[in-house]
């Protein structure tokens, strides 16, 4: 369906020339001035909407679509119906994302501080910041210009956020230094005490003070209800451009490089280091004090208990290289078939 304007206001109408320029797409002659107001799926799009085709299985929907323009790969351009403009891109989803962002940009800070917000002594609120009802910005905290602090959010003493950050509803952030354009989605918990303790002979657990911070690089996004513990001595560091999905857990002293992607319910134990552009799929777990090389990928539900070299794909529990894992899986299937055949009763013929 098309974007609901009650929740996703349009910045349009915008010309196709503006949209194509944002996506780096070359247009056929004579269509630059066509106007568009929204984006929509192939099935629901109308003449004023831009849609996209990700794979060949949706070609039947493309042929029947009423979309005014469609972002797609060159190999599928032949199926664009009459009257629609083919917006050819080598990366259709990326191009569509840029067009959709231009038509439906994120909300900007209103500059209003709600009368029921609480701003502590010595807090510095940058120009144009928006602070919602029941939000708390404690003493000594610093917000850069144009930040949004949602309802019931809590920013602890002396935390620092750069420009254009979004700290949304019910977020708590303590012991945190963040760069520009950081997004903390609802319910995220940043800077909580790390899980560190010593056990006495009596069985008593004695908490080890967690004296580090959380450092969030520019353009970090943290999903709803995800948790990032502060360091125990060293800092917990999330590299610029890293994306955390919902319900991700980051232990104390973890360090990620640039542009990492951690998918839902993944967990990284304390003091593990991830290189740049590492991908950890859903529900995977990584033990503590490991090194995961740049551009490594960890499969869903995997358990990583050893270092992973740069660029390697691993999966399973314990996680092993993907190629080896595929050979093991094939051998297990072959063994299972052999045992099943051995158990089948012999048939006698007259």
Label the overall shape. Answer: flat
Summing up helix and strand content along with how strands pair, one would put the structural category as alpha/beta
- Briefly note the CATH topology name of the domain at 14-103: Udp-n-acetylmuramoylalanyl-d-glutamate--2,6- Diaminopimelate Ligase, Chain: A, domain 1
Rg calc:
26 Å
- CATH top level of the domain at 14-103? Alpha Beta
CATH architecture of the domain at 14-103: 3-Layer(aba) Sandwich
Percent of residues in helices comes to: 10-25%
Poorly predicted runs are none
Number of strands: 38
Supply the CATH superfamily name of the domain at 14-103.
Answer: MurE/MurF, N-terminal domain
Q: Alpha-carbon distance between the termini?
A: 66 Å
Strand order, largest beta sheet: 9-12-15-18-23-26-29-32-35-37-38
Report the biggest beta sheet as strand number plus sense, adding barrel if it closes. Answer: 11 strands, mixed
* Mean pLDDT score: 93
Strand content: 25-35%
Number of helices in the DSSP assignment: 4
């Amino acid at each position: 369906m098309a974007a609901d304007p009650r929740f996703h206001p349009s910045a349009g109408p915008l010309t196709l020339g503006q949209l194509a320029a944002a996506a780096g797409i070359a247009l056929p002659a004579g269509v630059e001035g066509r106007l568009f107001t929204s984006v929509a799926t192939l099935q629901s799009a109308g003449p004023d909407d831009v849609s996209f085709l990700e794979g060949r299985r949706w070609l039947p929907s493309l042929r029947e679509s009423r979309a005014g323009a469609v972002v797609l790969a060159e190999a599928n351009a032949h199926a664009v119906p009459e009257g629609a403009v083919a917006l050819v891109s080598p990366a259709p989803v990326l191009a569509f994302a840029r067009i959709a962002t231009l038509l439906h940009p994120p909300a900007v800070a209103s500059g209003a501080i709600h009368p029921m917000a609480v701003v502590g002594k010595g807090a510095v609120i940058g120009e144009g910041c928006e602070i919602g009802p029941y939000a708390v910005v404690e003493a000594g905290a610093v917000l850069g210009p144009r930040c949004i602090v949602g309802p019931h959010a809590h920013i602890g003493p002396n935390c620092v956020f750069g420009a254009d950050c979004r700290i949304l509803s019910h977020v708590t952030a303590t012991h945190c230094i963040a760069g520009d354009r950081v997004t903390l989605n609802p319910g995220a918990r940043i800077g909580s005490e790390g899980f560190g303790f010593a056990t006495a002979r009596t069985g008593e657990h004695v908490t080890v003070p967690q004296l580090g911070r959380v450092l969030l690089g520019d353009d970090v996004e943290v999903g709803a209800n995800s948790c990032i513990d502060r360091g125990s001595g060293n800092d917990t560091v999330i590299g610029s451009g890293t994306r955390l999905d919902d319900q991700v857990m980051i232990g104390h002293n973890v360090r990620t490089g640039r542009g990492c992607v951690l998918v839902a319910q993944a967990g990284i134990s304390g003091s593990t280091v991830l290189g740049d552009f590492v991908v950890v799929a859903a529900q995977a777990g990584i033990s503590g004090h490991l090194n995961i090389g740049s551009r490594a990928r960890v499969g869903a539900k995997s358990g990583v208990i050893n270092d992973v070299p740069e660029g390697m794909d691993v999966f399973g529990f314990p996680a092993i290289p993907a190629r080896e894992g595929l050979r093991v899986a094939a051998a297990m299937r072959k063994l299972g078939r052999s045992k099943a055949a051995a158990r089948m009763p012999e048939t006698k013929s007259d």
